[in-house]
Design a protein that fits this description.
The chain has nine helices and four strands; from the N terminus they run H-H-H-E-E-H-H-H-E-E-H-H-H. The chain is mostly helical. It has one domain: Cytochrome Bc1 Complex, Chain D, domain 2 (Orthogonal Bundle). The strands form two sheets. A two-stranded antiparallel sheet has the order 1-2. Strands 3-4 form a two-stranded antiparallel sheet. Helix 2 crosses helix 7 (205-220) and helix 6 (150-158) packs antiparallel against helix 7. The longest helix is centred in the C-terminal third of the chain and has 29 residues, at 224-252.
Length: 270
Amino acid sequence: MFASIAGLTVGGAGALLYALESSVSASGDNLHAPKQNWSHRGLLSSFDHASLRRGYEVYKQVCAACHSMHYIAYRNLVGVTHTEAEAKAEAEEAQVKDGPNEAGEYYMRPGKLSDYFPSPYPNEEAARAANNGAYPPDLSWIVSARKGGEDYIFALLTGYCDPPAGITLREGQYFNPYFPGGAIGMAQALYNEAMEYSDGTPASASQLAKDVSTFLKWGSEPEHDDRKRMLIKAIGIFTLLCSLSYYIKRHKWSALKSRKISFHPRNKQD
């Protein structure tokens, strides 16, 4: 009885949450990002590491001017987008505040592998002042923090257009139908040939958006490839164990499970 009541309660709560989610999604005034065919979306598919490297270049040359990635360190790039020497060179290009020294003063030094990506602004107030009051969010976990994930990021970056009739934007705002409300404080950042890739890949706006969306997906889940490698190992181990269990059941226990026991009563002697 208690189990039935608990099941009905949980089921009703789940149905209510689903209905509320559906109603909120249906009443939203922003477009839903269409699903893209990402190479890493398969059950056992890994990231395209060439795309990750290009995505880092887009972040470094375009996004890093306004957005931070506080939770990604240069050491995380090793073996993913860069070799150790290349990652060290990337870190050394950044000037990191350190200290205090023996004189009690802070100083700037070249970055190290253990340093995290530097922020373009010293604090939130400075970031808002430089962006008409809008605060550029940290991009470390942005893909996991937005409904639609990398599909949303790609659609947002490529979805800028003129506002429809009847919609008036304030100064410093731009129209993007994929952004909640449509009015966004970030100007369109990606254009055709806005930058050049080091590997010579044609830098169209959609290619730039695809690569940086892939990079931000990795930033949200750096363990992505390791997790899928563990899944492959787990499948192999469980396949071996299941095969061994089947063998033991069929061949070792077959005699016990199919045996027939007969009872013969002993004749009583007078």
